[in-house]
Task: structure prediction
Amino acid sequence: MSNPLYDRLFGIHAGKDTPFLHLPNGQTVTHADFLDMSARLANALIGYELEPGDRVAVQVEKSPEALALYAACAQAGLIFLPLNTGYTTAELQYFIENSEAALVVCDNAKSKGLAPIATAQNARLETLNADGSGSLMRRALGMLPAFEPVRRSEEDLAAFLYTSGTTGRSKGAMLSQANLLSNAETLVREWRFSADDVLLHALPIFHTHGLFVATNVVLASGGSMIFLPKFDLDDMLRLMPQATSMMGVPTFYTRLLGDDRFTGDLARHMRLFISGSAPLLAETHERFETRTGHRILERYGMTETNMNTSNPYDGERRAGTVGFPLPDVELKVTDPESGETLPQGEIGMIEVRGPNVFQGYWQMPEKTTAELREDGFFITGDLGRVDADGYVHIVGRGKDLIISGGFNIYPKELEMLLDDQPGVLESAVIGVPHPDFGETPVGLLVAEPGATPDLDAIMARAQAELARFKHPRKLIVLDALPRNTMGKVQKNALRERFAELFT
Ligand code: MLC
Ligand code: AMP
Result:
């Protein structure tokens, strides 16, 4: 039976004793081992009486078993919904409810808090811990290592990834099998991945970058990965000589460059360094080339679209640009107000269309209509221009978004929390430059008349409710927020004023 995602990423490796995952402890998981694990997990999932199309919400640490759960969902026709390990129980409640998940898989440490939420949702709750233990694997280990993939077509949904909006709650971006496959196969060709590749994989596997770019590309090419639980500088330096390629957010590159042990010698065996998820400073690009002789290949994508553009493998990788639209992606720059295409070279809203573009937001037809045009163009929210040579430049964001170390933070979510705190009249959250994370959030508060907000208590509240990466790095009380004649807070003025807070 046909199941294109499973067949083309996983099934092609059936019976192969070739390495797939090299673990930091020196162990290797072969393709055959991995597929055994996936089949056992698929059997376990089906045993929970899940139906094709059901959502499986997964908040677990990175491990081979966690990755096999992705494969198992593909094999069993279930929709994989990975969640940032930093999310608090309060944040998770929304995702579980909104997606109407049928199964929630979490770490033991989170299961107590999630149990009532899962019960209220009529969802099953199983555990999977960083070391592969937990109720899910316990059950899977008793299953057969064979599972006939559930029949699916390319149009069927494979995954939901939640992405926040400038206003309101997070939206579940629905990605079809074709969305994932078309992008993976394009990237293998564009970036020349092959079975000889060993990718140094230190990204989390709950976002587009680590899961759909890095992992799918390695799967589609038959290569292997040095699979690290997280970015650890010592591990990176120790293992880089065994790798041929690396994908990372800009923080990976600045951290490597910040360590004198990172030399051209360590990177000699490498064929390709790729950066994305946030802007790579031209200065980082240049320092990296001076140190190693390698020019980083920068590409541009997002949750709703996977990858849209890439600098060329052969040809000039231009610092400060994200390269050309991928072969099957159309890109245009439009007037944000009218939607009309602008003359070449002008700055406007980037819109993209192609087989990579998602199917819409889960149960949010108005949001889908607002961002995904009827003719298939997706309004990215990124402002950019295309230069005379065809290179795309991202020059800013039309959406109010902060990217810290590759994680997105929507100021609105923080502002709503800050506005609710005792003694706070109003607030504005801005991203300011940060040497390690690129940008970091700062909360600017205006006190109610006569009140003195307790900043420590407010910070503690934010820490209790929001994932660690979203915590404001600093809270500052101002007399008033600058506003334009329309009454809109002038965040640009605030960003300028506080630009040097951390640099
Ligand atoms: C961790 N922390 C962060 C953070 N990551 N804070 C702000 N921003 C981040 N990105 C917290 C930690 O919990 C810790 O809290 C403290 O900050 C310092 O931790 P650290 O040890 O310095 O951080 P580390 O764990 O090393 O993580 C940093 C990182 C990681 C950059 C390696 O964030 C990372 O792997 N980022 C990649 C994100 C990513 O994959 N993005 C792709 C999205 S897909 P405490 O309390 O312990 O001090 C996408 C589409 C596309 O955007 O185009 O790719
Ligand atoms: P996400 O929705 O988490 O997938 O984040 C996607 C956003 O990250 C994009 O809309 C861009 O704003 C940003 N982004 C991704 N890659 C790059 C890049 N190479 N340069 C600048 N911004 C990027």
Q: What stands out?
A: The chain has 15 helices and 24 strands. The pocket of malonyl-coenzyme A (ligand 1) is lined by residues 203-204, 207-210, 230-231, 249, 251, 276-277, 301-303, 404-407, 437, 468-469 (CB under 6 Å). The two ends are 57 Å apart (CA to CA).
